[in-house]
């Protein structure tokens, strides 16, 4: 019997993090936010980190099929040092632990920080390489202010949409920035939908639309205003709805999230 060859993995490959990408960039003025991107070209697979200078309160809203997060429960909506988006499916959460380890080292091992993360599926490849702890440490070291690489960089290096229907197409990561008076708002998204991507007129621009099969799209919205945790939660939900970013996979799916208990006001910016 012919012996089957094993796929290339993190244990068998000599992996070197790549932190520079020849892609368009979004330039923006948000000094409290640093962004880093890193990838293993051997995958390709990668991760993107968002590092905050003042550890703002973060609020997470998880919905849809097969989500993958680390520190993703509403009970952990507390001060957050960084958020990491990674490929590699459930194994990609290891990248967030690398970000946390590097933060710990940079503090002289004296300050414990919370790092939250979310993952995407990018195992359409022949190999089984995923964003690991080493890549997480590298992506944090690469973080800088004012620049967000667009398209195939960081977590976006190997993302696709429409993959569940025999005709996957490449996507990537995207971002937008707006300032209204003193308020600065930044939005970043990694698109990994099993269905289609549509424009504002509802026309399919990439992928294949079929709402019966779920796929993850992850995003981050940040601003430096002060408000309640519940208010920040609602802003995120309503923004996703206005963007047409989700649709129920079946009747009865929960598309809302209620935070119960005492109302608390964020003493620092909420994300």
TrEMBL record:
Q: Which domain of life is it from?
A: Bacteria
Q: Where are the membrane-spanning stretches? A: none
Which stretches does the entry tag as region Disordered?
206-254
Q: Per its record, what are the GO molecular function terms? A: aminopeptidase activity
Q: Which family does it belong to?
A: Belongs to the peptidase S58 family.
| The protein's name | Peptidase S58 DmpA
């Amino acid at each position: 019997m012919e012996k089957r060859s094993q796929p290339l993995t993190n244990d068998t490959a000599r992996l070197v993090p790549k932190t520079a990408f020849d892609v368009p960039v979004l330039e923006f003025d948000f000094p409290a936010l640093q962004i880093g991107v890193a990838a293993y070209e051997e995958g390709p697979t990668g991760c993107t980190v968002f590092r905050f200078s003042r550890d703002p309160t973060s609020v997470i809203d998880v919905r849809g099929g097969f989500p993958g997060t680390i520190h993703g429960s509403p009970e952990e909506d507390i001060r957050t040092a960084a958020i990491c988006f990674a490929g590699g499916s459930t194994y990609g959460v290891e990248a967030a632990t690398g970000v946390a380890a590097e933060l710990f080292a940079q503090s002289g091992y004296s300050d414990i920080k919370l790092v939250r993360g979310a993952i995407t599926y990018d195992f359409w490849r022949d190999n089984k390489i995923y964003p690991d702890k080493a890549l997480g440490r590298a992506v944090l070291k690469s973080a800088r202010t004012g620049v967000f690489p667009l398209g195939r960089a960081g977590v976006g290096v190997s993302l696709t949409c429409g993959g569940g229907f025999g005709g996957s197409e490449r996507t990537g990561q995207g971002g937008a920035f707006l300032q209204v008076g003193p308020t600065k708002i930044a939005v970043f998204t990694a698109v990994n939908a099993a269905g289609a991507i549509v424009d504002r007129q509802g026309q399919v621009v990439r992928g294949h639309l079929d709402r019966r099969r779920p796929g993850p799209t992850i995003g981050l919205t940040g601003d430096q205003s002060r408000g309640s945790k519940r208010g920040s939660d609602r802003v995120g939900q309503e923004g996703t709805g206005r963007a047409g970013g989700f649709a129920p996979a079946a009747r009865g799916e929960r598309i809302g999230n209620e935070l119960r208990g005492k109302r608390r006001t964020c003493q620092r910016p909420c994300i």
